[in-house]
Write a structure and sequence with these properties.
46% helix; TIM Barrel; alpha/beta
């Protein structure tokens, strides 16, 4: 199934790399989320992701989704911590499996519990294979993952390609929010070489130089959150988006 938001992302990708801004509704509730989203979109971000913390309530997610949708015209996508962070007020949700978790709840069981609710809410699901790379940070701890070592290119390729073969519409390589370094360029290059679905990369991307390296390695969608939460819109985020635009022009 291909819905409106996935079609939008694919159309943007046909023109070059895409940038996604991640906003945490717990750290940046309703009006703050709307202000940050507006600033990011004004600088050129292509869509807004809502999520990040554990324990985000339906009410807090709904408040942020409504505020962001009223503030910007680009899609709003839930990046769920679990079924408790669902809301019908977003445009879409990453219906994702944490591929390298030891906890089956995060691989498939939570998704089974949430599937009927997502359908009833009429939120567009985007099937996503989510793969945590060392150091993994908080998501690695909470997700009970066996993080892929930064030099284990074959494992990263295997997980990513398995996700594609299982029907995932996108694959996401995550170093973890606040990671000291992004996903290694060699790993991005290796994973991209085996995939035919879009590759998302997030975690540890703070500067334009970071973005340039990852885009050159083959990242197709870049996710940044910390530079927005720290309100470095005219610094770090502007530099990152300049590199995205430069990559599109190549």
């Amino acid at each position: 199934m291909v819905g409106r938001v996935l079609t939008y992302l694919r159309e943007r990708l046909a023109k070059g790399p895409v940038h996604l801004t991640l906003i945490d509704p717990e750290k940046s509730p309703g009006p703050v989320a709307a202000r940050l989203a507006r600033g990011a979109v004004d600088l050129g971000s292509d869509a807004i992701m809502l999520g990040g913390s554990t324990g985000i309530s339906n009410a807090r997610m709904g408040e942020a989704a409504r505020a962001v949708r009223a503030a910007v015209s680009v899609p709003t996508i839930i990046f769920p911590e679990g079924p408790a962070s669902l809301s019908p007020d977003a445009d879409a949700i990453y219906f994702m499996s944490l591929l390298n978790s030891r906890n089956l709840d995060l691989v498939i069981r939570a998704q089974a519990r949430a599937a009927l609710a997502v359908r009833a809410m009429r939120i567009e699901p985007i099937a996503l294979g989510y793969l945590v790379v060392a150091p993994g940070m908080r998501v690695g701890e909470v997700g009970q993952v066996d993080a892929v070592a930064r030099d284990d290119l074959a494992s990263a390729q295997g997980y990513a390609l398995a996700g594609e073969f299982l029907g995932m519409q996108m694959i996401y390589l995550e170093a973890g929010s606040g990671a000291p370094q992004p996903v290694p360029e060699e790993m991005i290059r290796a994973v991209r070489s085996v995939l035919s679905v879009p590759l998302i990369v997030g975690g540890g991307i703070r500067t334009g130089a970071d973005a340039a390296r990852l885009l050159s390695a083959g990242a197709q969608l870049l996710v940044t959150g910390t530079v927005t939460e720290e309100e470095r819109l005219d610094g770090g985020l502007q530099e990152i988006l300049s590199e995205v635009r430069r990559a599109r022009a190549r």
